[in-house]
Amino acid sequence: MSAAREPRMPMRLKLRWPRAWRTPLGVIGTVIAAAWIVIAFTAQWWVPYPPNAQVLPRLQAPGIETLLGTDGNGRDIFSRLMTGATVTIPLALTLVIAALLIGATIGALAGYFGGWIDETLMRITDLFMAFPTVILAMVVAASLGPSLFNAVIAAVVVSWPQYSRVTRSIVLSLRGQNYVIAGRLLGHSPARTLIVDILPNIAGPLLVLATLDIGAAILLLSGLSFLGLGAQPPMAEWGSMISSAMQNFDAWWLGVFPGLAILTVVLAFNFLGDALRDVLDPTAEVTHEKQSELAASSGGAA
To answer: How many helices (H) and strands (E) does the chain have?
Structure first.
């Protein structure tokens, strides 16, 4: 009689997240960014007061009745801060997407066709990059007139050149690959080659750059509003709120809480961009595992 076979344990499917998403900074950035995005698209339904309602005592310090205090007009800072997220974050996402589309298109055309097209488009890009970003954004916003929409246009104008440069460099390295050349020999049009063969290989780096650029976009929009070139009173916008706080230096909460909101959002998207870069880098995970194996073997040998 053969020995009875032991029952086999059922196989369990183990879901394993990339190591970059399991790092403290990756987790913190993802959680904070997700929380602010949820606030940005839902705050209008649950804030305790309308953002411009002057129904509370003026310059009341943070407490039980008003969590973050009130401003000089009796408006609730917490309600205005949450409502400001519905303005700043969607506009920052919009301008980053617009700058990405414009810059990636120009860079892809310059890198793929080369010649006079490349020279012309890159000289235009160099012209925009020759000016300091903030100074050029201020000039464009002041020329168009102080408004939040014009501030977004100014931010797009100064943001697209970096995407153009990155896209061009990647396309230049890819257009000589065998699969791209094979597509051309098969009669693929330039548009089909760029979209089908090249776009999947440049999407990762551009996505990382766009994620990191969201924080810079928020800083730029808030800075223009702080200078009076963006959002105009009484709109609840973080940069405008900090600008208004300068009139009441004794009421510290007027500027501290909008500043902390900007700080947390910018740090969150920077952490998220770093984690995304490690995830999309095919060598990062392998390198980290090799280092762990070497450290374990060294410890065993010792």
So the answer is: 11, 0
CATH of the domain at 162: 1.10.3720.10
pTM: 0.82
Structural domain contains residue 37: no
Condensed to tens digits (0 to 9), the pLDDT of residues 155-206 reads 999 999 999 999 999 999 888 888 888 887 888 788 888 888 888 888 888 9
Reported as type and span, the H/E element at residue 104 is helix 77-113
Q: What are phi and psi of 188, to 5 degrees?
A: -65, 140
Residue 208's nearest CA partner among 98, 285, 96, 287 is 96
Instruction: Provide the domain count of the chain.
Output: 1
d(CA 182, CA 190) in angstroms, rounded, equals: 13
User: For 95-142, how does the pLDDT look when each residue is reduced to its tens digit (9 = 90+)?
Assistant: 999 999 999 999 999 999 888 999 999 999 999 998 888 899 999 999
Task: Tell me the C-alpha to C-alpha distance, in Å, between residue 41 and each of 38, 90, 91, 152, 233.
Answer: 5, 8, 12, 19, 22
